[in-house]
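Hi Prof. W.,

I finally got the F-box domain-containing protein prediction working! I wasn't sure whether to trim anything, so I left the full sequence exactly as given:
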Amino acid sequence: MILEDLPNELFIEIFRCLSTLDLLRSVYNLNFRFNQLLFAHFLTSTIDFRSIALRDFRLVCREYLPLLANQIISLRLSNDDRTPQQMEVFLEHGLTLHQLPNLQSLSLYAINLQEAMLPTISQLRSLNRLTLADCSLSCNQNISQNFIDAIWSLPTLTYSYLNINFKENTVILPTVRSVSLKCLSIWSITYDQIQFNTICRHTPCLEQCSILFNMDSPDPVDPFQHEFPSMTRFSLHSSHIEENHLNYVLQTMLNLRQLIVDIDSLDSHSSSPIFNGYQWETILRRYLPHLQVFR
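And this is what came out:
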């Protein structure tokens, strides 16, 4: 039996065991059949460049990515110690994210989000998953605001993980409504309750949320308090917690099914510094009648 006698399904399984670089070097342009199999593989798989040498990534940007633009649906780029300067090299070769018309998932790790690439975010009309992990944005507040609003304006985005260090630790809130975003995790920024309510009001379809919460503020008062009936899963991370703050948050999520509370410490100055099982039961029964999972 010769290699080309193997069925297509077996080749696809073999491709899943190989890195993107190995596939491109060994399979691309062997013949029409292998090109079609490779394209089919990329249409269902993530092109992951998180562990590729810089010289190899330059080769990929120069020789392969321009030819594969229509086949890329999921892309991961990194700028950590093992894979430095990937975004810079990507842009140096005249590549932009909006040249990937079928891109549905984008993951950027430890990337310095340059001002020149920010307008391309709003052009990713097919994007439904966005991960920005340990990224930084050193632009002024207006540009940072436009960037966040561009994310909230993406028409098909359903999942977003945002861990962005803004200039001078600025708190940037969306000012436009997302009609599609259902799952949101935000790290590196700690929000108070009014800021969190602002996020939820601009994300009316939100079903799952994980967020850092500041409960050091005085008694919460928000003249624009809304209920968030779509919320079914909520992860709350705070340095400490007080019962009145917690009650205020939970009473807006009557349809919550899962609640995860991560507390670094309890406030010894609080009027009720210790939450025992009875107190938790009282809170959950009072505000979350549909809760199924609590940790």
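The mean pLDDT is 85. Does that look reasonable to you?

Thanks,
D.
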